[in-house]
Amino acid sequence: QVQLVESGGGLVQAGGSLRLSCAASGRTFSNLHLAWFRQTPGKEREFVATIMLSGGSTNYADFVKGRFTISRDNAKNTAYLQMNMLKPTDTAVYYCAADDFFPDLIQGIPDYWGQGTQVTVSS
Question: 3, 24, 75, 105: which has the fewest Cβ within 10 Å?
């Protein structure tokens, strides 16, 4: 019932910024918790950030705290990941995810996945 499409990835130099967007379909967007994950070739997908239904509660992986900000605009059915002070180690495919059950989302088994957008950070 929900389709997620990421955009905004690209190539940026270390220290630069990017804003990723996750456009969602469906009338139940506001009833879904949202998250961003990332994955590099040969490695496990890792949690980046999550935002709760109302947008009032967020949490982040330690390695992005102070640099990344997750947000959502329910009126636009869109989630965002603002990435500042990017490092080469941030290079990955970034995925948007959604679930109405938060534990599934944080465990990395959400009901809905986007196709991902590539972020490459050069030295």
Answer: 75
Length of the chain: 123
Nearest to 34 by CA among 18, 19, 49: 49
Q: Which residues contact 119 (CB under 8 A, 6 or more apart)?
A: 9, 10, 12, 18, 20, 38, 83, 86, 90, 91, 92, 93, 94
Q: Per residue, what are the HEC states of 9-76?
A: CEEEECCCCEEEEEEECCCCHHHCEEEEEEECCCCCCEEEEEECCCCCCEEECHHHCCCEEEEEEHHH
Please report, in tens digits, the pLDDT of each residue of the chain (123 residues total). 899 999 999 999 999 999 999 999 986 788 999 999 999 988 999 999 999 987 779 999 999 999 999 999 989 999 999 999 999 999 999 999 999 999 999 898 999 999 999 999 999
Quick one: tokens of 107?
Answer: 């465990």
